[in-house]
Design goal:
Among the domains are: about 115-230, Peroxidase, domain 1, CATH 1.10.520.10; about 240-375, Peroxidase, domain 2. The protein is about 40% helix and about 0% strand. The chain has 12 helices and 2 strands; from the N terminus they run αααααααβαβαααα. It has helices at about 5-35, 115-130, 135-145, 175-185, 195-210, 240-250, 255-260, 290-295, 325-330, 340-345, 350-360, 360-375, and strands at about 270, 310. It has a two-stranded antiparallel ribbon with strand order 1-2. The longest helix has about 30 residues, at about 5-35. GO terms for molecular function: heme binding; lactoperoxidase activity; metal ion binding. Its cofactor is heme b; Ca(2+). One of its GO terms (cellular component) is extracellular region.
């Protein structure tokens, strides 16, 4: 069967147009997906479909070209490189706030200087020349911390400063603190506080004296007040209950009080504090005192005579300048010197602690280390409080 030429041409033309129409549809779809990843007029990427979010009524297809005709001469989108971040500058050293071990690390002009280690060497040198500096600095630390906290207020010179109060007239060791401060100012000017110098010296001396080697915290600031009238320290003539109350006011437990008084394992006492315990007819006479000890002490402190003599607080001659638990053994044997020391071994509230410390040297060391850290943190000034004195004996 033959078809007319005109009919054949019509069929070919229709087929050609159909192919072209299908080709246009494919191009339109491809153009729409490219547009979805292009930048908006504000320079931000459009996330309408690329993050899986649906446009209203679009069912996920790109919308916005009403005639679905492919645009002409659309350049290939170029994804810009992310902006370069500015070079990071080294962090500025900041002074830490609060007590911490190694507070002064990196704060000296020479960042490699370990100023606390340098100061400890000075303490070691002084101790080799004068081992009695141990009880002297221990006493200084206690007397300082119990008045306005550990702020070195005891170091201030003046007519009516803490240094001039009765209980502090016999405090000594100032020359060591001044020598350490001079070293600190030479290597770290205006950085190391006098309060921290006392704490560093105390910690190092306890270790040199055979006691525990605890990690000292630093970061204290120096106080701005020092008045003799503010000095109110527990008297050695107080009862155990009164002493417990005095320590409790400073937030110490009875056990901590006993271990801190155990620091009387080193040091001496003058006759004025125990002389009346030796002789009958006085209000302080102690009939339970070890008779041998009484006979030994009478020549040192004759009856009715104000003698400026002294004796060791720990009556064990092999341990009189060693930080150990010997003191507790001595008071159990009724060989205590100060009235409060001996009372610890007789009062039901403190006897259990005395027995424990007397029996265990390791327990003594552990408890003493913890109590010293707590004592040296008592009401301290930190951060922007107080000041860093240039000279320990005067305010800036």
């Amino acid at each position: 069967m033959k078809f007319p030429v005109t009919s054949i041409l019509v069929r070919v033309l229709a087929l050609t147009m159909l192919i072209l129409a299908l080709s246009h549809v494919g191009q339109s779809k491809g153009s729409g997906w490219k547009q979805g990843g292009s930048k908006s007029s504000h320079g931000h990427k459009s996330y309408g479909s690329t993050h899986g979010q649906k446009s209203h009524g679009s069912k996920g297809r790109h919308v916005g070209r009403g005639n679905n005709k492919p645009p002409k001469n659309i350049p290939t989108p170029i994804t810009p490189s992310p902006p370069l971040s500015p070079p990071s500058s080294p962090p500025t050293p900041t002074r830490p706030s609060g007590l911490q071990v190694g507070f002064y690390k990196g704060l000296c002009p020479n960042k490699l200087v370990d100023i606390e280690a340098v100061l400890e060497i000075k303490v070691q040198e002084h101790f080799r020349k004068d081992p009695t500096i141990l009880p002297a600095i221990l006493r200084m630390q206690f007397h300082d911390c119990f008045v306005h906290g550990c702020d070195a207020s005891i170091l201030i010179n003046g007519l009516s400063t803490e240094k001039t109060a009765g209980p502090n007239l016999s405090v000594r060791g100032y020359e060591l603190i001044d020598a350490m401060k001079a070293i600190a100012e030479a290597q770290c000017p205006g950085v190391v506080s006098c309060a921290d110098i006392i704490a560093i010296a105390t910690k190092e001396l306890i270790k040199l004296g055979g006691g525990p080697n605890y990690s000292v915290q630093t970061g204290r600031r120096d106080g701005l007040v020092s008045r003799a009238q503010d000095v109110n320290l527990p008297s050695p003539f107080l009862t155990v209950s009164e002493t417990i109350s005095a320590f409790s006011a400073k937030r110490f437990t009875t056990e901590e009080m006993v271990i801190l008084l155990g620091c009387h394992t080193v040091g001496v006492s003058s006759c004025a504090f125990f002389q009346d315990r030796l002789y009958q007819g006085t209000t302080q006479f102690d009939p339970i005192m070890d008779p041998t000890l009484r006979q030994q002490l009478m020549p040192t402190c004759p009856k009715g005579i104000t003698a400026n003599n002294s004796t060791f607080l720990d009556q064990n001659p092999r341990s009189s300048n060693i930080v150990d638990n010997s003191f507790f053994n001595q008071i159990q044997k009724q060989r205590g010197i100060l009235p409060i020391d001996q009372a610890l071994a007789r009062d039901p509230k403190t006897i259990p602690f005395v027995q424990q410390f007397a029996q265990s040297a390791s327990l003594f060391n552990t408890k003493l280390a913890n109590a010293m850290v707590k004592l040296q943190a008592l009401d301290v000034l930190t951060g922007n409080q107080g000041e860093i004195r240039k000279t320990c004996s005067r305010f800036n």
